[in-house]
């Protein structure tokens, strides 16, 4: 088994050396500076903005921080639900509804505690001052499990629907079965109702919210602002982190196909391709442990416009993925090397890039130099 694992590892290195483009050097030190706007945090996970300019930041331990005028003065929202703060579980992503000014809804994903452990759940609520009110649980995954890994979970919206990701909770076989919610991208109406045109609604024993399956632990999810394609990235095992374009009803292969091996060096699958299973747009080996993502649409960063930014937890940098006009991977650039474990990156409504970092916990704003 060790020989087989070694052969597969060497073959993957061979593929990577011939398939990946060289990384250009970062020009951040010449054109931009990272300004810390909030520090002393623990594990900031998600970021969103309200029309009045306030920024809401989730702390995994179960807090929502209010940052105003690029400063955190200790204000936190009240009424946050109890979270299952274990391992990778806790309070996760947060997104204001695209039409927040009209409807006032804020959505967040979190690990919800209960009998049997924790689950990935989606709640929406409104604000009365700094108090969460009108809280509605619109989704919860079952069964609950005591596992502290692979909750997902990111949120995005399109045309009246909410899309969100759930990891396979550490049981890889979950990802290939549409009979459970784990290792999937899901789609619901914004109020939690089930769309009748979801791909598996006519299968009685299927989880009817599933949009795509065969995912491991997706911690990045966003629609491309120009093409409208849904992009996702997910953690592989030891190697094989993936960047995917998500399509309805498609199978993304985990664990039947993978470009990684298990953490102990054993083989998960001898296959990297299989008929009926999607190939990633790009994969990383060694794993960078990607988390959070945003497409750059702002004119404040003209040389990055149209590119994808995502965090590396493992190697502690911000990754800029350079895409061509058709949205294909060209190469990538490492920014903010050594800053800490980059948990999320997001673009504010006024066009600035913000980076959430853990170890040390802080929020950093990328400011173009004049």
TrEMBL record:
Alphabetical UniProt keywords: Oxidoreductase, Signal
Root EC class: oxidoreductase
Signal peptide: 1-22
Span of domain Glucose/Sorbosone dehydrogenase: 41-364
Superkingdom of source: Bacteria
Pfam hit, one: GSDH
The protein's name: PQQ-dependent sugar dehydrogenase
GO molecular function, one term: oxidoreductase activity
EC numbers: 1.1.5.-
């Amino acid at each position: 088994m060790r020989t087989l694992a070694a052969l597969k590892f060497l073959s993957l290195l061979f593929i990577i050396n011939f398939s990946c483009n060289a990384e250009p050097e970062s020009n951040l030190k010449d054109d931009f500076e990272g300004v810390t706007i909030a520090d002393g945090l623990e594990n900031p996970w998600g970021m969103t903005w309200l029309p009045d300019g306030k920024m809401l930041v989730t702390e995994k331990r179960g807090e929502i921080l209010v940052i105003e005028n690029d400063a955190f003065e200790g204000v936190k929202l009240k009424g946050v639900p109890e979270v299952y703060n274990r391992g990778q579980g806790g309070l996760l992503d947060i997104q204001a509804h695209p039409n927040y000014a009209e409807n006032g809804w804020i959505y967040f994903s979190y690990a919800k505690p209960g009998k049997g452990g924790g689950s990935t759940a989606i709640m929406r609520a409104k604000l009365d001052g700094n108090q969460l009110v009108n809280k509605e649980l619109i989704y919860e995954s079952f069964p609950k499990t005591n596992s502290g890994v692979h909750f997902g979970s990111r949120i995005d919206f399109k045309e009246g629907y909410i899309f969100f990701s759930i990891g396979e909770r550490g049981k890889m076989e979950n990802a290939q079965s549409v009979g459970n919610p784990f290792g999937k991208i899901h789609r619901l109406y914004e109020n939690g109702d089930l769309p009748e045109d979801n791909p598996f609604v006519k299968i009685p024993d299927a989880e009817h919210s599933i949009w795509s399956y065969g995912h491991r632990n997706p911690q990045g999810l966003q629609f491309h602002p120009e093409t409208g394609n849904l992009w996702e990235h997910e953690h592989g095992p030891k190697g094989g982190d993936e960047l995917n374009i998500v399509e309805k009803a498609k199978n993304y292969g985990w664990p039947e196909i993978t470009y990684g091996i298990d953490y102990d060096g054993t083989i998960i699958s001898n296959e990297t391709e299989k008929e009926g299973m999607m190939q990633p747009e790009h994969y990383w080996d060694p794993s960078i442990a990607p988390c959070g993502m945003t497409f750059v649409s702002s004119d404040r960063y003209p040389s990055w416009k149209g590119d994808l930014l995502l965090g590396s937890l493992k190697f502690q940098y911000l990754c800029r993925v350079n895409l061509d006009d058709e949205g294909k991977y060209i190469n990538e650039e490492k920014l903010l090397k050594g800053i800490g474990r980059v948990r999320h990156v997001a673009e504010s409504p006024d066009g600035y890039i913000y980076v959430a970092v853990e170890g040390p916990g802080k929020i950093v704003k990328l400011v173009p130099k004049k």
